[in-house]
Design a protein that fits this description.
alpha+beta; 2 helices; 3 strands; 76 residues
Length: 76
């Protein structure tokens, strides 16, 4: 398990890990244990929408537009 003590909301290092709220994302050796300074920060993190989760159709439109672009695949 990977452990991080950097609160992703406040960006402060959590030093009191015995009493700090945390959550575990994923499973197995690649699971991520994230510590938070407060329950409020943990809830804010949990309630933050992930990229594209609210409007996947908008993200699909971006990919469709790029597929029709004559420069697609060109990095030079």
């Amino acid at each position: 398990m990977i452990t991080t003590t950097l609160d992703p909301i406040s960006l402060n290092d959590v030093t009191d890990t015995r009493n700090a709220p945390y959550l575990v994302e994923g499973e197995g050796e690649n699971a991520l244990k994230i510590y938070f300074e407060s329950e409020e920060n943990k809830l804010e993190y949990i309630n933050t929408p992930t990229h594209g989760s609210d409007d996947m159709s908008g993200l699909k439109n971006i990919y469709d537009e790029m597929a029709d672009n004559p420069n697609t695949g060109s990095i030079n």
